[in-house]
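Spend some time on this chain, tokens included, and walk me through the fold:

. . .
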Amino acid sequence: MRNLLLYIDPGTGSMLFTILIGVLGTLLYFFRDGLMKLRFLFSGGTRERSADNDRLPYVIFADSRRYWNLFEPICDEFERRGEALTYLTASPDDPALGKGYQHVACRFIGEGNHAFAELNFLKADIVLSTTPGLDVYQWKRSRDVRWYVHILHAPSEITVYRMFGVDYYDALLLSGDYQIRQIRELEELRSLPAKECRLVGVPYLDAMKQRTEKGGARAPQPTTVLLAPSWGPSGILGRYGETILRALLDTGYHLIIRPHPQSFTAEKEMLERLMTAFPESPSLEWNRDNDNYTALRRADIMISDFSGVVFDYALIFDKPVIYADTSFDKSPYDAAWLDEELWTFTTLPKIGRQLKEEDFGQLKEIIDSMIGDPAYKQAIEAVKSECWAHIGQSAELTADYMIRKRGELLKEADES
């Protein structure tokens, strides 16, 4: 009974944390404003600007180490330009922490609520992140941050975040015109002010493309199939589990299974059950590399669902995909507000083939018919023009936007 009385469920804990941060924030700003007024009086009425001296010019926040592939090209660009940038991460093992930059300061700020507690009192001009839910969950807008910018971590839709995922950002850095159309429709439906939307491309895809061009031809290997699902009950492993794994092993091809990183947290029991039932062997491997590039490059074909990794694979390697029929439930997502079908599901038939459960017995024949089919390569080129703007320029354009925007904000502050 005593343990039950002390128990706080996660939802209540999140609410209490939000209330606590709100109270602390109010007190902090109350005393800070009072101190600034006293300084103003004792300075004889002259304008006091020292409060801005400790404001960071540019900040990147990453809630997970898995987004380093997105942010590394941007950090490299700031380093190349000699611009001071602060990279804050909620992962103690983030690869950024070992980079040794001169102009980019990388710092671990704690996990979970510890990270959000620091972010909620951050002083910065520009904050760039790929984390949705700003001002919705624990992460609140700091009064001392001038501008929040969201950058997508995949060239797929922006509407598959949980509800209100990017509503309270000031600007969005995107990779395709169709994403801008989706945002404008959501803003109209919710009576939101228009955010700045800029097409900058996809930093990590540019980096992958460069690696592929430098890597040369792939070494000879057995035909290899990569199973790379999303997570949740609509994902392949959540819906088909043992059935599809047996069917894939029956093809006789080498199988790489790369679960979504979130599966190891949200679907831990399911994954442990599958990994026990299907242990590693000469024909099967489970892949958890932080960098997915090697697994993607080794694959002759990918099987997935609605995961954004489908486009990473197809766009970089010009190879087709097989996507499972998973009956995606869009009700928890921003996409539920829009009547149109998801861009992902109108695009997948162009670059691959749908796999239904009744087709599992013919998987080998399906794979054989798709590998090397030139029609898919032509379709993939057309899709690139829809979802991957400014190929090869993304990190540069992102840095350009952040630097230019900060200049505008500082000018506005001087004139006010």
Summary: Residues 54-202+392-415 form a domain with the Rossmann fold fold (CATH 3.40.50). The chain is about 45% helix and 15% strand.
